[in-house]
Specification:
heterodimer; A: alpha/beta; Helicase, Ruva Protein, domain 3; Dna Topoisomerase Vi A Subunit, Chain: A, domain 2; two-stranded antiparallel ribbon; globular; B: alpha/beta; Rossmann fold; Glutathione S-transferase Yfyf (Class Pi), Chain A, domain 2; 6-stranded antiparallel β-sheet; 6-stranded mixed β-sheet; 10 helices; 35% helix
Amino acid sequence: MNRSGSVEIDRLIQILARLPGLGPRSARRAVLHMLKKRDSLMAPLAAAITDVAEKVHVCATCGNLDTSEPCAICSDHRRNRSIICIVEEVADLWALERAGSFSGLYHVLGGVLSALDGVTPEDLNIASLIERAGSDEVEEVILATNATVDGQTTAHYITERLKDAGVAVTALAHGVPVGGELDYLDDGTLTAAMRARRPF
Amino acid sequence: MPPATEEYGLAQTAHDRAADNIVAVSTAASSGQMLRRLTLANFRNYRELDLRLTDIARPCPIVLAGPNGAGKTNLLEAISYLAPGRGIRGARLGDLTRLGAVGPWSVSARLQTPAGEIEVGTGMQAVAAKSAGETEGGGNGTDVEDPSSGRLPERRIVRIDGSACRPAGLARIATILWLTPRMDRLFVEGSSARRRFLDRLVLGLHVGHGREIAAYERAMRERLNLLTHHGVDGGDPAWLTALERQMAEHGVAVAAGRIDAIGHLTEQIANQPAGAFPKAVLALQGLLETGLQTMAALQVEEDFARKLAANRALDARSGRTSEGPHRSDMLATHMAKGLAANLCSTGEQKALLVGLLLANAAMLKAREDRPPILLLDEIAAHLDEAHRRALFESLLDLECQTWLTGTDMALFSPLGGDTLRLSVQDGQILEAA
């Protein structure tokens, strides 16, 4: 259906079109662009993709992506090993690392519970989390799932499962964003912020 | 790239030009909330419409008259999609597209608010099915895919001032309330229609209400899905518990919003002078609504979560959620007669309903400085002369932009000169003589 005339190009377009944020049209555009810059863009890209595909693994401990096993975060002994922060996806882990305000370890769930989409606790890295939290080293687990219905359901679920693990379970605060003006916040956010107020 | 139909400045066709240059009599300073321009494409029987109301100084009644099937109600329906929800008919998105149209429907409007003018657009976008778990945020900057590339689920898109937002975000922009002939049986029918009516009233005061309902319903569906597929323990009791906590949290927020809105409405009704339309006494009936009268919200939340846990076996057997705010009801009583609304005559029920709508509009105007836009479909035909006059007087007092439809323009003559009269014929609109 792409009809570039070449099977190889069509195959590349079809694969690219399956990437999030891309469709057939943008895939065609990307391929044409790469072919124009074969040496300066396409070859380095192909090498980089091969490199990443060969070397990057999912960390067996936390679910992070890295070339080393365990990952750089898990094997960094300067980090606080008594705190584990639970996130939905690796992208969330990266976001927290960019912020640079957390020096503990992570646990990537790989999604959220959703009965409607057929995502069950077995589909997520929850069993390994319970195991990690059970070790004597761990004192606190921070729930950093998204503030969506499924994200919060998952957080409640994990809390329930960690009841007997003997760790403190905390959650990220929901409320006024930094630099935000109250007048622009919706009712739900304001209510959450009011609920989560603290001594100042 | 947004579909071209959503852009403003469509090439004008002959009949659009005829709708231009509509002259209003009033010269008062511009104020209030109203549509200044309405553009339709492929909506029901409208191929293309560009209705400009630029010369109107302030909100006034707008009468749409024309023969049956001309497209009067369709125009009201188009406006109703500038609010969250499924419009005045509760139609499926795909059914709104004009028969024989090439592209999907769209409705856009320029809305004047106290804060300035806002461009609002909505329509149906057919999107290619996404793989499971992949959610597209925003949709800005992504390609509009080949319609031929796979299954096409229906999705409503909304843009406010050019940026994409969820339909629920429309509640922030405008409150649109309506009465249609099919609501005449509101007090006699099952509770779901009354709940929808109630929740639309609440939305005028609490813009987050729609999101709370959506969150509650999502958690409810997930819980039911677990119960029906895996039995009483849902395969994992902790998962059920987590979902029930979500239901309790959002369910109590829904109930609290309803109580607040009904409280303000009751106050408004009490303070209004007696008029042609009977006053109603409103009462909320529901597990959480009743609980919140006597207990703290957190306590009600906990009780509800416990109740849900206790109902698991029952709900798994019946395949539905037996208790919660999705089953609440709004009961109305004719104040003067002390008679339940469903026992009143058909005419009295209609009058009660009109009275409720007017009181709610007055309350929103007083409290939020945000008078709603009203859509009244075929209302004149169902009221006697005295009630018709009383309604028109109230509408002129309220200074809401009110869109009225009717087959006979003469019925609207008591509205006087400060009214825009349009004649609708076969999907075209002309200024009436």
